[in-house]
């Protein structure tokens, strides 16, 4: 075990070396307010020094100041007055979730009017709650009167999560509070995808599962269904992520596999594949996990067309760097943290373990790989899940391989309908999706009912940090070991 092997590995991961100082800058700026002019000046000076002196230290300082500056630029500059009745210009951001006689949806407040009649620009998110009699729709624009109140009660982690996502609080919209309403402005690929899935005629939880797993529309998921998936350790299937984007990536490259036979065909195939990946990301509403997967598969497609090596960890760090540059608040978003923890663990521990356990039987390899990936992702995210939600699922280790297979059928069938909405395919795809969704839901319900399938564990923040420090130390220890030399023999 030698430190020089660790240095050699880090030399091949420039995105990781760039990500660490950016994260440090974001964390520092969250606790200490610094003037933007100072950050910009320091960034330019350190950048010039890094170029002239070829100094890694100045480059790290430049990236540190970049992260701190991103926090200042994205910081909330226009707050909404809390506890006062406001006349607001609001747009509904997603499909409302109905619970009894109340519906709720994320909404953006664009402007508000004070008592003197003056309008003030705003750009704040609120969790809008209203009576179902209003029949709110996604993308609809409202001129309404309501009261914005900060999030109170519940877990502190939930309030912190909503603040990181840019929410100013809750806003109750009474039945007579709508002054004016207008139809959604412009075309939304997300709304179009949800509408096309509705044409399949699925009902109940099968329809809700297909919308959530294929296009990220989660308003139809009932509290009972969410709880079953959380207790069974399969809640990751309800969020569009790498599995879904990977299906799009594989399908496009397979369907366009003949293009490289033409002149410059490999370039055309790669451009079309990347376009399809990002069109799918747009159809899902650009969720953080979808954007992360889209960036990684875009880099993979670029490596294929350039015949260069693809470093999974480098691509993962590049996607994190781009997302944090766009919105530093993602660093404190639980979905962002869980997504990157799981994928990093699969790359650093899951892939090497799968290689060590490789056998000559392909079927056994597939089973072993699915179990290893599930185990590694569960272990890596367990401390954060226990700290945030107070729940640790054990049944997911058993049911995830089959659940992922059924989930793949649901996603593939839904994507086929989105691409080829022909009437002749409707009965076949409807029956297939209903059977797969019901089978998945039955498996999840059985796993959630196991006595020891989920354990309630409240893990303090210090204990969770200590566990992740141990995991990081074990990973660094493994990176310090001398890599084995491999020799590929011709067949």
Summarize this structure as a short list of keywords or feature phrases.
491 residues; alpha+beta; OB fold (Dihydrolipoamide Acetyltransferase, E2P); five-stranded mixed beta barrel; two-stranded antiparallel ribbon; 17 helices; 9 strands
Quick recap of the structure?
With 491 residues, this protein is α+β, with helices and mostly antiparallel strands. It has helices at 3-11, 14-31, 36-53, 56-74, 156-164, 189-198, 204-215, 223-231, 242-255, 265-283, 288-306, 312-326, 334-356, 362-389, 396-419, 426-448, 461-479; strands at 85-92, 97-99, 102-113, 119-131, 141-149, 167-173, 178-182, 391-393, 454-456.
Radius of gyration: 24 Å
What coarse outline follows from CA principal-axis ratios?
A: globular
Q: Compute the separation of the termini in Å.
A: 34 Å
Q: How many individual domains?
A: 3
> Which band does the percent of strand residues land in?
5-15%
Overall pLDDT metric? 82
Structural class: alpha+beta
| Topology order in helix (H) and strand (E) letters | HHHHEEEEEHEEHHHHHHHHHEHHEH
Largest sheet: 5 strands, mixed, barrel
How many H/I helical runs?
A: 17
């Amino acid at each position: 075990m030698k430190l020089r092997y660790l240095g050699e590995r880090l030399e091949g991961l420039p995105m990781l070396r760039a990500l660490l100082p950016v994260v440090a800058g974001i964390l520092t700026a969250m606790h200490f307010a610094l003037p933007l002019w100072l950050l910009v000046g320091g960034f330019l000076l350190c950048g010039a020094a890094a170029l002239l002196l070829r100094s890694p230290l100045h480059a790290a300082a430049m990236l540190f100041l970049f992260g701190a500056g991103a926090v200042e630029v994205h910081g909330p500059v226009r707050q909404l007055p809390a506890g006062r009745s406001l006349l607001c210009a609001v747009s509904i951001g997603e499909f409302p979730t109905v619970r009894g006689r109340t519906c709720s949806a994320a909404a953006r407040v664009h402007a508000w009017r004070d008592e003197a009649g003056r309008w003030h620009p705003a750009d704040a998110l609120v969790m809008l709650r209203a009576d179902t009699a209003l029949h709110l729709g996604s993308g609809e624009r409202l001129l309404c009167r309501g009261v914005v109140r900060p999030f109170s009660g519940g877990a502190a982690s939930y309030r912190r999560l909503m603040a990181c996502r840019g929410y100013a609080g809750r806003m109750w919209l009474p039945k007579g509070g709508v002054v004016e309403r207008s139809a959604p402005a412009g075309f939304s690929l997300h709304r179009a995808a949800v509408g096309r899935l509705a044409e399949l005629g699925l009902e109940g939880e099968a329809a809700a599962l297909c919308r959530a797993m294929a296009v990220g529309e989660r308003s139809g998921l009932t509290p009972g269904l969410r709880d079953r998936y959380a207790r069974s350790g399969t809640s990751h299937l309800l969020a569009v992520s790498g599995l879904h984007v990977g299906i799009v990536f594989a399908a496009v490259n397979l369907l366009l596999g003949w293009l490289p036979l033409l002149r410059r065909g490999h370039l055309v195939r790669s451009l079309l594949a990347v376009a399809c990946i990002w069109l799918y990301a747009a159809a899902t509403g650009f969720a953080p996990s979808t954007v992360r997967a889209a960036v990684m598969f875009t880099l993979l497609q670029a490596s294929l067309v350039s015949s260069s090596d693809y470093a999974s960890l480098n691509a993962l760090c590049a996607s994190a760097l781009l997302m944090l540059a766009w919105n530093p608040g993602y660093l404190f978003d639980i979905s962002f943290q869980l997504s990157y923890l799981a994928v990093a663990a699969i790359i650093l521990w899951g892939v090497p373990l799968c290689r060590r356990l490789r056998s000559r039987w392909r079927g056994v390899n597939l089973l072993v790989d699915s179990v290893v990936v599930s185990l590694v992702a569960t272990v890596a995210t367990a401390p954060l899940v226990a700290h945030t939600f107070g729940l640790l699922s054990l049944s997911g280790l058993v049911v995830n391989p089959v659940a992922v297979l059924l989930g793949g059928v649901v996603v593939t069938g839904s994507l086929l309908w989105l691409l080829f909405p022909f009437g002749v395919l409707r009965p076949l795809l409807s029956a297939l999706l209903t059977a797969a969704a019901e089978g998945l839901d039955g498996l999840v319900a059985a796993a959630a009912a196991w006595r020891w399938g989920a354990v309630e564990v409240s893990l303090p923040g210090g204990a969770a940090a200590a566990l992740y420090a141990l995991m990081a130390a074990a990973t660094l220890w493994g990176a310090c070991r001398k890599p084995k030399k491999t020799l590929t023999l011709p067949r």
